[in-house]
Amino acid sequence: MMCYEGWIMKWTKLTLSTMAEAVDLVSNMLSELGIEGIEIVDNVPITEQEKKAMFIDILPELDLDDKTAEISFYLGEEDSLQTITYQIQEGLRELSGYVDVGSGVIEVSETEDTDWINNWKAYFKPFRIDDTIVIKPTWEELASVGEKDIVIEIDPGTSFGTGSHETTKLCILGIKKHLKPGMHLLDVGCGSGILSIVGAKLGADRIFATDIDSNAVNSAYENAEVNKISTNILNIVSGDIISDNTLQQKAGMECYDMAVANILADVIIPLSAEIGQHIKPGGFFISSGIINTKKEQVKAAVLENGFQILEINEMGDWVSIVAQKPVRD
User: Fold this and answer.
1) Number of folded domains in the chain?
2) Is 15 annotated for ligand binding?
3) What residues have CB less than 8 Å from 132, skipping those under 6 apart?
4) What is the pTM assigned to this prediction?
5) CATH code of the domain covering residue 279
6) Is 158 annotated as a binding residue?
């Protein structure tokens, strides 16, 4: 979407009233509708452990009796407000069979704040994935870094992937556990490039990444440069590896020790039929972005396409499946 000099883009802000327990499911539903850059406000307290991991000192005062939540997002002038609100209401009706979605009221307002897409940066602070991996926004400074810390600097821009969401954390932990120095890595749906960068920092010496969004490719290359990841190691291409034969050939056949995909269940299911031809026998397929209500569907697809499941890891309402391509006799 272009914004020409001297012309102020008008954005429509939608704020959806729901319940804190439904936030993950509603967020996933919005993502499936193509809505990105959501803002969540609730009264769920963070733990002392999370407080330390996020490098913050002061916890906000919360009304713990208030279980409601608000999810805000923006639509451009070319988006159909009527269509989007109808799709959201249909999605809420479906989710109400699983969880209390609250009132589902959608408030609409208009803004001319052309920099709204960057305003969230005030809330993106350095945090730990585990005892050694630290995610740091490019515009923030770290007070201290441990000897064994691996620091990943990220500016996601308009792409998915700050590392803070459970799906990305699960994927990063899977990569750390199974990736060995010298391995070749395939990253499908790379977004900001965070998983490719983690792989490179952990010793992968060849990485091929793809994303259907050309803007994500630019963002991933910029983040790779900030993290001093050479283009000799990382190659990023725009396209859909599930359906694009040219991209499939460019990626190469049976040449990766590990493939990772932090996308959505409805994409991972068809991807599991394609990805195996790119993975070496004995190689790993780590998928994430799977809402727990679709775990069994993804599990069935992974097994049906010849993989052996090694682990199923869960965090909150999200699932990651670590599978392996069998070694030939």
Assistant:
1) 2
2) no
3) 146, 148, 149, 150
4) 0.68
5) 3.40.50.150
6) no
